[in-house]
Amino acid sequence: MPDVTFRPLTSQADLAAGVAIQRLTWGDRFTEVVPATMLQICQKVGGVAAGAFDRENRMVGFVFGLSGVREGRPVHWSHMLAVRPEARGQGLGKRLKLYQRELLLKAGIGEVRWTFDPLVAPNANLNLNALGADIETYVPDMYGGDTGSDLHSGLGTDRAVVVWMIRSGKVTRAIEGEGPALAGDLTGAPIVNPGAALNELRDGVAFRIEVPPDIQQVKSEAPAAAQAWRNTTRRAFLWYLERGYRVAGFLSGGGGQPSHYVLSRPERHS
Fold first, then answer.
1. Closest CA to 143 of 153, 132, 129, 133
2. In terms of pTM, does the model score above 0.85?
3. Domain total for the chain?
4. What SS3 state is found at 43?
Protein backbone atom coordinates (compact mmCIF):
# COMPACT_ATOMS: atom_id res chain seq x y z
CA MET A 1 0.00 0.00 0.00
CA PRO A 2 2.16 2.89 -1.23
CA ASP A 3 -0.34 5.69 -0.54
CA VAL A 4 -0.39 5.29 3.25
CA THR A 5 0.63 7.86 5.84
CA PHE A 6 1.48 7.16 9.47
CA ARG A 7 0.70 9.56 12.29
CA PRO A 8 -0.35 9.73 15.94
CA LEU A 9 -4.06 9.80 16.73
CA THR A 10 -4.91 13.40 17.60
CA SER A 11 -8.47 14.33 16.62
CA GLN A 12 -11.64 12.88 18.08
CA ALA A 13 -12.26 11.22 14.70
CA ASP A 14 -8.82 9.57 14.86
CA LEU A 15 -9.43 8.28 18.37
CA ALA A 16 -12.88 6.94 17.45
CA ALA A 17 -11.32 5.15 14.48
CA GLY A 18 -8.78 3.59 16.85
CA VAL A 19 -11.62 2.12 18.90
CA ALA A 20 -13.53 1.00 15.80
CA ILE A 21 -10.60 -0.93 14.33
CA GLN A 22 -10.21 -2.81 17.61
CA ARG A 23 -13.82 -3.96 17.42
CA LEU A 24 -13.40 -4.87 13.75
CA THR A 25 -10.35 -6.99 14.58
CA TRP A 26 -11.30 -8.65 17.87
CA GLY A 27 -15.10 -8.55 17.57
CA ASP A 28 -18.04 -6.65 19.07
CA ARG A 29 -18.00 -8.79 22.22
CA PHE A 30 -14.32 -8.13 22.95
CA THR A 31 -14.13 -6.99 26.56
CA GLU A 32 -10.62 -5.51 26.44
CA VAL A 33 -11.15 -2.61 24.01
CA VAL A 34 -8.93 0.36 24.86
CA PRO A 35 -11.18 3.44 25.03
CA ALA A 36 -10.59 6.69 23.18
CA THR A 37 -9.67 8.54 26.37
CA MET A 38 -6.83 6.10 27.09
CA LEU A 39 -5.58 6.35 23.50
CA GLN A 40 -5.48 10.11 23.98
CA ILE A 41 -3.97 10.25 27.46
CA CYS A 42 -1.25 7.64 26.95
CA GLN A 43 0.43 9.89 24.39
CA LYS A 44 0.94 12.58 27.01
CA VAL A 45 3.28 10.32 29.01
CA GLY A 46 5.31 8.65 26.26
CA GLY A 47 2.79 6.10 25.01
CA VAL A 48 2.05 5.42 21.34
CA ALA A 49 -1.38 5.49 19.74
CA ALA A 50 -0.94 5.81 16.00
CA GLY A 51 -2.55 4.78 12.75
CA ALA A 52 -1.93 4.14 9.10
CA PHE A 53 -4.27 6.16 6.89
CA ASP A 54 -5.06 5.73 3.20
CA ARG A 55 -5.51 8.52 0.67
CA GLU A 56 -9.13 9.00 1.80
CA ASN A 57 -7.87 9.49 5.37
CA ARG A 58 -9.43 6.17 6.42
CA MET A 59 -7.58 4.26 9.13
CA VAL A 60 -6.33 0.96 7.72
CA GLY A 61 -3.93 0.05 10.53
CA PHE A 62 -3.46 0.78 14.22
CA VAL A 63 -0.75 0.40 16.87
CA PHE A 64 -0.98 1.12 20.59
CA GLY A 65 1.43 0.79 23.51
CA LEU A 66 2.40 2.21 26.88
CA SER A 67 5.78 3.44 28.09
CA GLY A 68 7.14 3.02 31.59
CA VAL A 69 10.13 1.96 33.66
CA ARG A 70 11.46 -1.58 34.15
CA GLU A 71 14.40 -2.24 36.46
CA GLY A 72 15.37 1.41 36.29
CA ARG A 73 15.34 1.81 32.52
CA PRO A 74 12.70 3.16 30.14
CA VAL A 75 10.75 0.49 28.26
CA HIS A 76 7.68 0.31 26.07
CA TRP A 77 4.93 -2.32 26.06
CA SER A 78 3.32 -2.57 22.63
CA HIS A 79 -0.14 -3.85 23.46
CA MET A 80 -2.09 -3.83 20.18
CA LEU A 81 -1.44 -4.07 16.45
CA ALA A 82 -4.36 -4.27 14.01
CA VAL A 83 -4.78 -4.07 10.23
CA ARG A 84 -8.10 -3.98 8.40
CA PRO A 85 -8.87 -7.27 6.60
CA GLU A 86 -8.66 -5.80 3.09
CA ALA A 87 -5.24 -4.28 3.83
CA ARG A 88 -3.58 -7.44 5.20
CA GLY A 89 -0.80 -9.31 3.46
CA GLN A 90 0.85 -6.14 2.16
CA GLY A 91 3.45 -5.54 4.86
CA LEU A 92 1.43 -2.92 6.70
CA GLY A 93 1.91 -4.57 10.09
CA LYS A 94 5.68 -4.34 9.75
CA ARG A 95 5.49 -0.72 8.62
CA LEU A 96 3.37 0.15 11.66
CA LYS A 97 5.93 -1.46 13.95
CA LEU A 98 8.74 0.43 12.24
CA TYR A 99 6.85 3.70 12.65
CA GLN A 100 6.40 2.85 16.33
CA ARG A 101 10.15 2.13 16.55
CA GLU A 102 10.91 5.50 15.00
CA LEU A 103 8.80 7.30 17.61
CA LEU A 104 10.35 5.34 20.49
CA LEU A 105 13.93 5.91 19.37
CA LYS A 106 13.26 9.64 19.29
CA ALA A 107 11.92 9.34 22.86
CA GLY A 108 15.10 7.60 24.03
CA ILE A 109 13.55 4.15 24.44
CA GLY A 110 15.44 1.13 23.15
CA GLU A 111 13.56 -1.82 24.68
CA VAL A 112 10.09 -2.93 23.59
CA ARG A 113 7.96 -5.89 24.67
CA TRP A 114 4.66 -7.38 23.54
CA THR A 115 2.87 -10.69 23.37
CA PHE A 116 1.53 -12.90 20.60
CA ASP A 117 -0.14 -16.28 20.37
CA PRO A 118 2.65 -18.71 19.40
CA LEU A 119 0.15 -20.82 17.44
CA VAL A 120 -0.37 -17.95 14.97
CA ALA A 121 2.41 -18.61 12.45
CA PRO A 122 2.16 -15.33 10.45
CA ASN A 123 2.58 -13.29 13.64
CA ALA A 124 5.60 -15.36 14.65
CA ASN A 125 7.14 -14.79 11.23
CA LEU A 126 6.59 -11.02 11.51
CA ASN A 127 7.87 -10.74 15.08
CA LEU A 128 10.88 -13.04 14.92
CA ASN A 129 11.99 -12.89 11.29
CA ALA A 130 10.88 -9.55 9.89
CA LEU A 131 11.44 -7.51 13.06
CA GLY A 132 14.19 -9.43 14.84
CA ALA A 133 12.45 -9.76 18.22
CA ASP A 134 13.31 -12.59 20.64
CA ILE A 135 10.97 -14.78 22.66
CA GLU A 136 11.65 -14.15 26.34
CA THR A 137 9.08 -16.38 28.04
CA TYR A 138 5.81 -18.28 27.60
CA VAL A 139 2.76 -17.48 29.76
CA PRO A 140 -0.30 -19.79 29.84
CA ASP A 141 -3.62 -17.90 29.70
CA MET A 142 -1.93 -14.53 30.13
CA TYR A 143 -5.15 -12.59 29.57
CA GLY A 144 -7.52 -15.08 31.18
CA GLY A 145 -9.58 -17.77 29.55
CA ASP A 146 -12.08 -15.64 27.63
CA THR A 147 -11.87 -12.03 26.43
CA GLY A 148 -15.10 -12.21 24.43
CA SER A 149 -13.16 -12.29 21.16
CA ASP A 150 -13.76 -15.08 18.66
CA LEU A 151 -10.01 -15.04 17.99
CA HIS A 152 -9.39 -16.14 21.58
CA SER A 153 -12.33 -18.43 22.20
CA GLY A 154 -11.75 -22.14 22.64
CA LEU A 155 -7.98 -22.04 23.11
CA GLY A 156 -7.45 -19.59 25.94
CA THR A 157 -4.88 -16.81 25.77
CA ASP A 158 -1.47 -18.48 25.99
CA ARG A 159 1.14 -15.95 24.90
CA ALA A 160 4.81 -15.72 24.07
CA VAL A 161 6.39 -12.55 25.45
CA VAL A 162 8.94 -11.04 23.07
CA VAL A 163 11.61 -8.43 23.66
CA TRP A 164 12.60 -6.13 20.79
CA MET A 165 15.89 -4.33 21.31
CA ILE A 166 15.28 -1.68 18.70
CA ARG A 167 18.82 -0.22 18.71
CA SER A 168 20.51 -3.59 18.21
CA GLY A 169 22.34 -4.75 15.13
CA LYS A 170 20.19 -7.88 15.03
CA VAL A 171 17.03 -5.80 14.69
CA THR A 172 18.58 -3.56 12.06
CA ARG A 173 19.66 -6.56 9.99
CA ALA A 174 16.23 -8.21 10.31
CA ILE A 175 14.48 -5.05 9.16
CA GLU A 176 16.76 -4.98 6.14
CA GLY A 177 15.94 -8.63 5.39
CA GLU A 178 19.27 -10.04 6.58
CA GLY A 179 18.24 -12.38 9.35
CA PRO A 180 20.81 -14.95 10.55
CA ALA A 181 20.80 -18.37 8.91
CA LEU A 182 20.25 -21.37 11.19
CA ALA A 183 22.81 -24.16 11.25
CA GLY A 184 21.84 -27.44 9.65
CA ASP A 185 21.67 -29.35 12.92
CA LEU A 186 19.01 -26.87 14.03
CA THR A 187 16.86 -26.89 10.90
CA GLY A 188 16.85 -30.69 10.93
CA ALA A 189 16.18 -31.10 14.65
CA PRO A 190 13.50 -33.52 15.94
CA ILE A 191 9.93 -32.24 15.72
CA VAL A 192 7.41 -31.89 18.52
CA ASN A 193 3.78 -31.84 17.33
CA PRO A 194 0.48 -33.50 18.31
CA GLY A 195 0.91 -36.32 15.81
CA ALA A 196 4.54 -37.13 16.46
CA ALA A 197 5.06 -35.58 19.87
CA LEU A 198 7.93 -36.93 21.88
CA ASN A 199 6.48 -39.22 24.53
CA GLU A 200 8.84 -37.72 27.09
CA LEU A 201 10.39 -34.33 26.49
CA ARG A 202 14.14 -34.65 26.92
CA ASP A 203 17.36 -32.72 26.65
CA GLY A 204 19.12 -32.66 23.32
CA VAL A 205 20.97 -30.41 20.93
CA ALA A 206 17.81 -28.81 19.55
CA PHE A 207 14.13 -29.38 18.88
CA ARG A 208 11.54 -27.92 16.54
CA ILE A 209 8.10 -27.07 17.89
CA GLU A 210 5.65 -27.28 14.99
CA VAL A 211 2.61 -25.04 14.52
CA PRO A 212 -0.10 -25.30 11.83
CA PRO A 213 -0.37 -22.87 8.90
CA ASP A 214 -3.70 -21.45 10.14
CA ILE A 215 -4.77 -22.24 13.69
CA GLN A 216 -8.08 -20.37 13.27
CA GLN A 217 -9.02 -22.68 10.39
CA VAL A 218 -8.06 -25.72 12.49
CA LYS A 219 -10.15 -24.41 15.38
CA SER A 220 -13.13 -23.89 13.09
CA GLU A 221 -12.93 -27.28 11.39
CA ALA A 222 -11.58 -29.50 14.18
CA PRO A 223 -11.72 -27.94 17.68
CA ALA A 224 -10.25 -31.03 19.33
CA ALA A 225 -7.25 -30.90 17.00
CA ALA A 226 -6.75 -27.20 17.77
CA GLN A 227 -6.77 -27.99 21.49
CA ALA A 228 -4.20 -30.71 20.90
CA TRP A 229 -1.95 -28.16 19.21
CA ARG A 230 -2.32 -25.86 22.22
CA ASN A 231 -1.62 -28.59 24.75
CA THR A 232 1.43 -29.90 22.91
CA THR A 233 3.05 -26.56 22.19
CA ARG A 234 2.36 -25.24 25.70
CA ARG A 235 3.99 -28.27 27.29
CA ALA A 236 7.01 -28.10 25.01
CA PHE A 237 7.63 -24.37 25.34
CA LEU A 238 7.35 -24.45 29.14
CA TRP A 239 9.54 -27.53 29.48
CA TYR A 240 12.38 -26.25 27.29
CA LEU A 241 12.35 -22.60 28.29
CA GLU A 242 12.38 -23.51 31.98
CA ARG A 243 15.58 -25.48 31.31
CA GLY A 244 17.36 -22.57 29.69
CA TYR A 245 16.73 -23.37 26.04
CA ARG A 246 16.18 -20.38 23.78
CA VAL A 247 14.23 -19.89 20.59
CA ALA A 248 17.02 -19.67 18.04
CA GLY A 249 14.74 -18.96 15.08
CA PHE A 250 11.44 -19.50 13.32
CA LEU A 251 11.17 -21.53 10.11
CA SER A 252 8.13 -20.21 8.26
CA GLY A 253 6.46 -22.86 6.16
CA GLY A 254 4.44 -20.66 3.82
CA GLY A 255 2.19 -22.01 1.08
CA GLY A 256 0.00 -23.87 3.55
CA GLN A 257 2.89 -25.78 5.07
CA PRO A 258 3.53 -26.05 8.83
CA SER A 259 6.07 -23.77 10.50
CA HIS A 260 8.57 -24.51 13.26
CA TYR A 261 10.14 -22.75 16.21
CA VAL A 262 13.72 -23.92 16.67
CA LEU A 263 14.83 -24.24 20.29
CA SER A 264 18.48 -24.94 21.04
CA ARG A 265 20.53 -25.89 24.08
CA PRO A 266 21.89 -23.20 26.37
CA GLU A 267 25.55 -23.91 25.55
CA ARG A 268 24.96 -22.92 21.91
CA HIS A 269 24.37 -19.37 23.18
CA SER A 270 27.32 -19.14 25.60
1. 153
2. yes
3. 2
4. helix
